[in-house]
Amino acid sequence: MSDATSIARRLAELGLVLPGVPAPVAAYVPAVRSRSTVYTSGQLPFVDGVLVATGKVGVGTGLIDPADAYQYARIAGLNALAALASAAGGLEHVARIVKLVGYVASDPDFTGQPGVVNGASELLRDVLGDVGIHARSAVGVTVLPMNSPVEIELVADLV
Amino acid sequence: MSDATSIARRLAELGLVLPGVPAPVAAYVPAVRSRSTVYTSGQLPFVDGVLVATGKVGVGTGLIDPADAYQYARIAGLNALAALASAAGGLEHVARIVKLVGYVASDPDFTGQPGVVNGASELLRDVLGDVGIHARSAVGVTVLPMNSPVEIELVADLV
Amino acid sequence: MSDATSIARRLAELGLVLPGVPAPVAAYVPAVRSRSTVYTSGQLPFVDGVLVATGKVGVGTGLIDPADAYQYARIAGLNALAALASAAGGLEHVARIVKLVGYVASDPDFTGQPGVVNGASELLRDVLGDVGIHARSAVGVTVLPMNSPVEIELVADLV
């Protein structure tokens, strides 16, 4: 685990603030704690309630540049951390991020999903240190909700 | 948890019957219990052994209407509950549905996956009450087994 | 569980050797152990560091034949077993494979994902016996990292 002070310091050094978690309006919630495990919902790159970009990732006209998509994965990862923190009672209670699944809305010719999902993976490492180093799957899907370019979900173990 | 009587009453009020779970014919099974957690296989909208619809969800000629797909997600969700019940020894042993993943076979222009997967999410809430409220990911994939429009998988915690 | 001797014998009978697990070079790792559960990263059909095939699975010119894809899923499954073994301290510590997700990079008209993913599922059964029989989801995605035809991830419970 990382203690609350060091996590707060890393977030500040990265210029990041954990966003608020929207109140659930549906038959599902942003994260569920089950004993010592937290499962988050798939998180999209919302900032202040607005998707920062829409479309599919790839190389070519009308597609989202992979370097931009990396940033969007980072934002989605930050939202996933916020959902996790809300269910865990704070990130200092996280013993380990055990799994991340990164879905990338992809042009069928784009095969660089790992580089995009690194935006989320590296954020977890930057904020949580070794606690944030996880197993991961990255896949390229046809389309995501609201035409989001990326979606990030986490499974975490609590202390 | 919900007790067996209230679950049976809700199912009856909804006009639903948990279907039988097909005997496994392959190297995998409908659900596995691991200590106090149950993982289901991805479930398709089968009724009496027949897929209720095939194709991709979207808006336009030759596509499955999203409102119809909502119903198919509900059926797949019911099959997932049946698989869960068989591994748990009854739904009254479920402490919480912790995660649902909803895969929607999607036209690349269709971005309403959340509304489709609500068919499964709302069923869980209707049958199980607060116990059924879960974390969730909804994604739009290219194609699903046997050309199914939807596939629903669950992770649940037992009491 | 299966004991180490019987697992070694089955692997030998199948002509298989668990491959080495590459050292992590990124913000994620091949597998994470969390208490008595191991989550693997999505594994691709690498042999000696090279993908054995690239492309999308389907029937027709320019597509990967499903029978070939079955073999690639088997190789990806072997890599997933290797990742699991490394985190578990040996496959003899596995109490049960609880979940497998098989992503198949699919032509939109190809609906035989279950037959492809059987390559991985049947490998687990062949190597681990009843311990290897799991819940499973098989989905058809647009494209996978490095243009891999398949990706296999596992969740396993340890003794």
TL;DR?
3 copies of one chain form a homotrimer. Chain A contains 3 helices and 7 strands; from the N terminus they run αββββαβαββ.
Description:
Chain A is α+β, with helices and mostly antiparallel strands. Chain A has one domain: RutC-like (60s Ribosomal Protein L30, Chain: A, 2-Layer Sandwich). The first copy, chain A, is built from three helices and seven strands, in the order H-E-E-E-E-H-E-H-E-E. A five-stranded mixed sheet of chain A has the order 1-2-7-5-6, covered by helices on one side. A two-stranded antiparallel sheet of chain A has the order 3-4. In chain A, strand 3 and strand 4 (50-51) form a beta hairpin. In chain A, helix 2 packs across helix 3. The model of chain A has no long low-confidence stretch (mean pLDDT 95). Chains in contact: A-B, A-C, B-C.
What features would you highlight for this structure?
two-stranded antiparallel sheet, 60s Ribosomal Protein L30, Chain: A, homotrimer, 31% helix, 159 residues, alpha+beta
